[in-house]
Amino acid sequence: MEQYLNVARYVLEHGRRKESRTGVDTLSTFNYNYEIDLRKGFPLLTTKEISWKNIVIENLWFLSGSTNIELLRQHDCKFWEPWADEGGYVPSAYGNFWRSFPAPNGTSVQTIDQVAWVLDQIKNDPMSRRHVVSAWAPSNAHDSQLPPCHAFWIINVQMDDENNPFLCLHLTQRSADVALGVPYNIAGYAFILELFAHLTGIQAGVFAHTLVDAHIYTSKPDGSLAEYDHVPGLKEQLTRTPRELPQLKIDSSIKSLDDIDRILESNIDEILDTFHLSGYNPYQAIKFNVAV
């Protein structure tokens, strides 16, 4: 997947040192954009191994709307642990606002299920340009320990040369950790695009990605915090030739959002049989430490 390697190469070559909230410096760039055509295969990185289980469970968790990481713990997915409170809750969890966005109504606050609305609109008004899902709720984000990095996404239907529709998804990401986060972001939103295509009967097409602040964590100029330096690992990836992309097949038993809630109660083998990835042949994993 050359698009990802191009991101890494660009930030390594053009990034400027910038202090970050974590205390670890980054090489930072502004406004990087690219596209990936899912009709050529599912974009799970092959230049290092990525956990397909983690991709599926995290994004089903998002789509469930839950703010508690117990489901992730059941399947040994640990990446949200640093941001959960003692009860296992993550107030800024993406799915919370996807499924229950606060909408003031006079003296009361109602909520809007953005995901259900967008799915309904794609089926009934596919050419609309209003299929938007926002994870950024200012009342939460302004005070959150970790406000949403992937701020909002848009579904859009286009037509191919034979006048057949195909479904596209554009993700705007305010903060993009190139080494650790971006490979999961690509695969996660490609998973959502494939799922929406499955549920609406419109072929999955292009995933487009805007990285507002694309950055690579690096050691301090004096060499300290080298354990968080992602530069060597990314340079190693750039020596690897991308391999053929895998294929995703979603079982016909998944017919609606209600089926997402049902499958979450299954064991991991059944979940991965339902969202079956074939032909994945990556290089070995590269370890990157997360800057919290």
TrEMBL record:
GO terms for molecular function: thymidylate synthase activity. Its EC number is 2.1.1.45. This is Thymidylate synthase. NCBIfam families: thym_sym. SUPFAM superfamilies: Thymidylate synthase/dCMP hydroxymethylase. One of its GO terms (biological process) is dTMP biosynthetic process. Residues 2-292 form the Thymidylate synthase/dCMP hydroxymethylase domain. PANTHER family: THYMIDYLATE SYNTHASE, THYMIDYLATE SYNTHASE 1. Keywords: Methyltransferase, Transferase. Gene3D superfamilies: Thymidylate synthase/dCMP hydroxymethylase domain. It comes from the Eukaryota. One of its GO terms (cellular component) is cytosol. The keyword Methyltransferase applies. It comes from Geodia barretti. InterPro entries: Thymidate_synth/dCMP_Mease, Thymidate_synth/dCMP_Mease_dom, Thymidate_synth/dCMP_Mease_sf, Thymidylate_synthase.
